[in-house]
Write a structure and sequence with these properties.
The structure is a single chain. With 80 residues, this protein is an alpha+beta fold. It has one domain: Multidrug-efflux Transporter Regulator, Chain: A, Domain 2, CATH 1.10.1660. It is built from four helices and three strands, in the order βααββαα. The chain has a three-stranded antiparallel beta sheet with strand order 1-3-2. The chain is elongated, with a radius of gyration of 18 Å.
Length: 80
């Protein structure tokens, strides 16, 4: 078996993202994380490249959020 498989299970993705399988399933079902459904029992697989692209999108969205919502230190403002 390859050390770096092309496709990951939802459990594998959850481990990479350090989150729950239910959260990963929700990302897939909402269309935020592209995946394929294989077999008669409906096993989901996420292509490794799709996971990496998802992570990069999340970094970009987070940067945008941080830029639009600057952190304000309440203690620093109150001491002025």
């Amino acid at each position: 078996m390859a050390d770096d498989p092309r496709f990951l299970t939802l459990a594998d993705v959850a481990e990479v993202l350090n989150t729950s399988g239910a959260q990963v399933y929700a990302l897939v079902r909402r269309g935020e994380l592209p995946a394929i459904k294989i077999g008669g029992r409906g096993q989901w697989r996420v292509e490794r490249v799709q996971l990496e692209e998802f992570i990069q999108r999340m970094y970009a969205e987070t940067r945008t959020f941080v830029d639009q919502h600057p952190f304000v230190d309440a203690e620093a403002e109150s001491s002025d």
